[in-house]
Amino acid sequence: MPSPSIVWFRDDLRLADHPALRAALDRGEPVIGLYVLDEESDGIRPLGGAARWWLHHSLASLAERLAERGSRLILRRGPAHRVVREAVEDAGAGAVFWNRRYGGPEREIDAALKSDLREGDVEVASFAASLLFEPWTITTGAGKHFSVYSPFWRACLAQPAPRAPLPEPREVPGPSRYPASDDLDDWDLLPTEPDWAQGLRDTWEPGEPAAQARLREFLDEDLGHYDDARDRPSAGATSLLSPRLRWGELSPHTVWHAAVETPGASGFLSEIGWREFAWHTLYHFPDLATKNLRPEFDAFPWPRLKPTALRAWQKGQTGYAMVDAGMRELWETGYMHNRVRMITASFLIKNLMIDWRRGEEWFWDCLVDADGASNTFNWQWVAGSGADAAPYFRVFNPELQADKFDKTREYIGRWAPEYTDADGQPPMPMVDLKATRQNALAAYEKVKQVSRQE
Predict the structure, then answer these.
(1) Fewer CB near the last or first residue (10 Å), C or N of the chain?
(2) How far apart (Å, rounded) are the C-alpha atoms in residues 222 and 226?
(3) Burial class of residue 224, CB neighbours in 10 A (0-12, 13-18, 19+)
């Protein structure tokens, strides 16, 4: 009697370049896809609202594509360690395959599950699919992890080229009997009361086919002027692939090999390298979302939180055009241009003197591309508390940044039109940029003093 293989999908919601799926097909038995919505296991961070919206539609797309090829996607909810074992028993599965995860709690779950399944004589294997380079393979000459990006990326590029992507299977044969599945709509991943997702629907089409189409479009139309235009938020030169990579609708191997032969691709590929750096850092520091990577920042004298100031920043009502435009783009689309992410984050941390963790939490809830590594890593970078951090005294002046990167005010005019309309009435600036910059630098001096005393 056939013993089906289960492919446990996680942040790899695709069929192309899917090593775990390929291993299941090579085993020669029927294949069942499984996705587990785990919001209960210790250390697992529940998804933000925008991420839940994306997940719903990406799962619907994956289920449809599996069905077209002969199998099904089974949906289960609960602690992954228990739920996967139950699915194995219900399906009579003889093997489980998955692609690796790199967060601390996720690795603990996977390791324990692998051990338990093998004790039950179930074949288990995991594969490298979400990063170009495994975190334990890139080390300094002393065998330690890198804390600075440039030498990290040089070490990556000195490795053998990333493997070629695997082809998408034409058929995924399913079993004669499937285990029970939840209904996707019953998971309530989509907002209803109120339904705030119209801007997301207008902006994005989740799923692997749309991801592949966007990659082709970027390579054909935007990559050639990426380096020149990527910092201008109105230029439309960025790849918009971050949510595709976050959800695994595209693999980094697919993106790498599609772009690497294109003239001028090195700047774009270095951004793929920055994503790698974030994940490698999280691998070595699992508490990145809550703890300063540089422990001397534990002494930073954050003032008592003023909820009204945080709310003004969240709503894009700070009185600074570039900040307000960015925060409104985020709320409307679930996305923000990278240059503007740095500006808005710097304003929160260094002008409003609000702990970077509060900003990271808001982005986690609002971004469709928020993942466990990049979101936290980038917030710590701006704060100066993280790896390869921007010096704390680098404060992004939002007015100077607007003059430099949005000279025509096209971006500001789209998202915060009251700043460009002759009859517009923008909010009054909530802080003085010069004075708050000096306050931030004075606070940083206290951190340095504590560090020297230690």
Answers:
(1) N
(2) 6
(3) middle
Q: Can 338 be counted among the known catalytic residues?
A: yes
Burial bucket for residue 186 (CB in 10 Å: 0-12, 13-18, 19+)? exposed
List 123, 187, 302, 361, catalytic entry: 302
Give yes or no for a contact between 57 and 243, defined as CB atoms under 8 angstroms apart: no
Establish whether 302 is a catalytic residue.
yes
271 among known catalytic residues: yes
In this prediction, the residues of the chain whose per-residue pLDDT falls under 50 are none
Q: What angle do CA 436, 376, 251 make, to 5 degrees?
A: 140
Domains and CATH numbers, the chain: 1-129 (3.40.50.620), 131-161+207-284 (1.25.40.80), 295-449 (1.10.579.10)
Number of neighbours of residue 202 by Cβ within 10 angstroms:
9
Which pLDDT value is given to residue 454? 60
Q: How many angstroms separate the first and last alpha carbons of the chain? A: 67
Token duo for residue 106:
């996720």
At residue 124, the pLDDT reads 98
Report d(CA 107, CA 111) in Å as an integer.
6
Any catalytic annotation for residue 356?
yes
Q: Single out the catalytic residue among 108, 271, 296, 418.
A: 271
From 98, 313, 356, 381, the catalytic residue? 356
Which residues, 6 or more positions from 289, have their beta carbon under 8 angstroms from its beta carbon?
A: 45, 357, 360, 372, 376
Q: What SS3 class is residue 76?
A: strand
Question: What are the Cα distances from residue 267, in Å, to 214, 239, 263?
Answer: 18, 12, 10
User: Tokens 């700043």 identify what position?
Assistant: 419
Question: Of the residues 256, 274, 362, 415, which is catalytic?
Answer: 274
Residue-wise pLDDT tens digits, 78-101: 999 999 999 999 999 999 999 999
Set 187, 338, 361, 439: catalytic member: 338
Residue 379: active-site member: yes
Q: What is the mean pLDDT of the chain?
A: 96
β-strands 31-37, 73-77 pairing: parallel
